[in-house]
Amino acid sequence: MAGFETKYGIKIEPAGLSGAAKANYVHGVRTHLSWIDGTNVGQLLLKAIGWHARNNPGNLAGGVVSIQPYTGGKCNAAVGNSTSTATGWSRPTVNYSPGVYATGGPCHTALLKASTNRGLYPDELLFHELVHAFRGAAARFNSAVAAGGGLSGYGNREEFIAVLTTNIYISDPSNGSKTGLRKNWNGFAPLEKGLDGSLDFFRSSKNAFSLIDGYCKDNPAFTRWIAAVKAHFNPIAAYYGDPATARSLSNGAVALVRDGDWVGLLGNLLAGNLTP
Predict the structure, then answer these.
(1) pLDDT-derived band at 244, boundaries 50, 70, 90
(2) Residue 102 — very low, low, confident or very high, per pLDDT cuts 50/70/90?
């Protein structure tokens, strides 16, 4: 390992590759890691992983986050957190193959479709998986918790957290090459208008506040770091800066309609408790 890989507790392992394919893989992953490292939010994520590599090495296999080739179908990447602990799964391995996104690669044309490529740039995909790896490094990864309601397209808590944090990364002014805000985990469509502001996002669902609240309590140092980044879209900053409004919007009319909670909507309307 060299440079930022040693600094951040990340090891590139080109399993199953040899010769030129092995060298190209290492170069490609290192290039995309350097893109992430060159942004404010990306550097904070790598710094957080590195902190756990130094202070909680037992949460990582061999004391590092391993990045290995992705062998699944479609244009995607993955992470495996393999060991259960009292607080969540740990020992993450990231599976990611940068070559498929290069010019002429099978996934390159997908990057050119502005209406469906949100969060699909290679560094954005790698960042997303590194969020999962960070949660594993902190032994907080638990994908058994459903996102639910108006957030059902995110699938589960961990995908919600990864998409949310990647959207902040995309919105980071120091990130010069990026797509746009992603709607949810189930696809790469744009985030809806009206939900694409830092506080407005809490209108997504009554679960939005509780999921972000749980994230911030699980990882208080990292989320405080992220909250300090002056990104256009930063619901974590909104949570810390104005929790009362964030909670109110998460229990407002738009959130209840998106959740399909008609009983709650009617009850709050009769009580005069609803915000827009």
Answers:
(1) very high
(2) confident
Alpha-helical runs (H) found in 56-113:
none
CB 159 within 8 A of CB 165: no
Collapsed DSSP state (helix, strand, coil) of residue 111: helix
Give the pLDDT score at 1: 44
Q: What is the DSSP string of 153-211?
A: GG-BHHHHHHHHHHHHHHH-TT--S----B--SSS-PBPPTTS-STTGGGGG-HHHHHH
For residues 37 and 81, what is the distance between their CA atoms, to the nearest angstrom? Answer: 23
Q: 49, 10 in Cβ contact below 8 A?
A: yes
Question: How many CB atoms are located within 10 Å of the residue 80 CB?
Answer: 15
Residue 92 dihedral angles phi and psi, to the nearest 5° = -80, 145
Residue 57 burial by Cβ neighbours in a 10 Å radius (0-12, 13-18, 19+): middle
DSSP run (H or E) holding 131: helix 122-137
Instruction: Tally Cβ neighbours within 10 Å of residue 4.
Output: 16
pLDDT of 202-240, one tens digit each?
999 999 999 999 999 999 999 999 999 999 999 999 999
CA distance 59 to 111: 34
Q: Where are the domains of the chain?
A: 4-271
